[in-house]
Amino acid sequence: MADRAYRRTLLKVSGEALMGSASYGIDTDTVTRVALQIKSAQAEGVEIAVVVGGGNIFRGIQAAASGMDRASADYGGMLATVINAIALQDALEKTGVVVRTQAAINVQQVAEPYIRRRAIRHLEKGRVVIFAAGTGNPYMTTDTAAALRAIEIGADVLLMAKHGVDGVYDADPNEQPDAHRFETLSYMEAISRRLEVMDSTALSLCMENELPIIVFDLDEEGGIVKAVRGERIGTYLSSEQTVLAKV
To answer: What topology is assigned to 8-244 in CATH?
Structure first.
């Protein structure tokens, strides 16, 4: 408990991270592994909220690019995040974790409406809270929803759990083997260099509210626990000076 760096965290899990090795949909083993990591992190005494993406089922931007109305496509994406939230909720409950899912759109049969004060109260009572349906508005990504909800609930840090990426690099490591990972990265440099951390709206929100971000690989063993403990993992984004990790 003495090593715990954060009291309240928001974890962003992309939809793609829930696919595992599959090319589409939800991999049950992967969701269970994520749930066990969240349970272990909560056992550290940390309050945890989660925002889930929906890209493993439906991506609004891709559908819009194919000719679908953008607003309609984004609402489809919101519904995909609700499906993922239900799957994660079920996996967490099977591990013995008490969970509440809140949605930004009206799906009262499967989730509570998003109410900020109620969400905070759930966290104070030791429950994991899953936020689904993004912000409830089209043209807004789940990255923006994660930044917004983290700020609203007073989270100490935003954990960006990536699939197969262990931080932020100065170039695409898949295309350039000599790419270097950042150990720390300032908000301004991430924005000016257009690094693929999250969308610019989300990053600007974090910068304006001085919300630190940790980008790490969800597939790393115990990654979520390491992050909430404040151990050195992935890339740490804040207003501090940018530092490349040592090779």
So the answer is: Carbamate kinase (3.40.1160)
